[in-house]
Amino acid sequence: MTVYFIGAGPGAADLITVRGARTLAACQVCLYAGSLVPRELLAECPPGARLVDTAQLDLDAITEELVRADGEGLDVARLHSGDPSVFSAVAEQMRRLDAAGVPYEVVPGVPAFAAAAAALKRELTVPTVGQTVVLTRVARQATPMPEGEDLATLGRSGALLVLHLAVRYVDELVAELVPHYGGDCPAAVVAFASRPEEVVLRGTLADIAEQVRTAGISKTAVILVGRTLAASHFRDSHLYSAERERHVC
């Protein structure tokens, strides 16, 4: 049998992929993070499926559930918010399953930063303005960041930064980024992206922290910082240029 790590998307139940929904509908066991995954998605599970909320479970308990289901000959859906490839804690679960000899597959999902960009109605990579996006977080009460991945180092690139799990430290982040981006650099915060309670804040590094405090945002948000967020005067992409040579097959 197989464990399927499924990206549930950023929040809206209908942003799960078609493959994700079909896989979920075929699994007799579903493990999900109750605080993050929309409960409407559980309606996709087959009748009689065993549903396990992992919000209060540690890694050992989660692994035990996955191995148990495999031993019973049952396929398992392991629902993760966003996309499993970033900030999902999937790597350690895969390592445990490798050790236990349990097969697994990964079904990608819509990541939070993509939902935030959609809410802002912005392309994060704009010709001649910015072509690099850095996805990162901060180390406060979580696992320490590797050497060389601190904000001061990343900020020197001037790339579009997307900060996860960081909104409660927005004042500290602004202080670290202003020397590299400038107080006038566009910044945005999107909380609960794609959900009915979605909140979108637009501003600059000079005022975004105050906006966050006023809005009372303290969780489930991403911070975006970079010039592409407000770019309007830029060169058209070469992709659709009339000067581009096109071959007719």
Helical segment tally? 7
**What is the CA-based Rg, rounded?**
20 Å
Largest pleated sheet: 5 strands, parallel
Across the major sheet, the strand order is 3-2-4-1-5
Assembly state of the chains shown:
single chain
Number of E strands:
10
Task: Using the alpha-carbon principal axes, give the shape.
Answer: globular
**What is the end-to-end distance?**
45 Å
* Beta content: 15-25%
* Low-pLDDT sequence parts: none
Secondary structure category: alpha/beta
Instruction: Give the helices and strands as they follow along the chain.
Output: EHEEHEHEHEHEHEEHE
Q: Overall mean pLDDT score?
A: 93
Could you list some keywords that capture this structure?
single chain; 7 helices; globular; 5-stranded parallel β-sheet; 5-stranded mixed β-sheet; 249 residues
Summarize the SSE layout with pairings.
Layout: E1 3-7, H1 18-25, E2 29-32, E3 50-53, H2 59-71, E4 76-80, H3 90-100, E5 104-107, H4 112-120, E6 133-137, H5 151-155, E7 160-164, H6 170-181, E8 186-191, E9 199-204, H7 208-215, E10 221-225
Parallel strand pairs: 1-4, 1-5, 2-3, 2-4, 6-7
Antiparallel strand pairs: 7-10, 8-9, 8-10
Helix pairs in contact: 2-3
GO molecular function: precorrin-4 C11-methyltransferase activity
Family: Belongs to the precorrin methyltransferase family.
Pfam family, one: TP_methylase
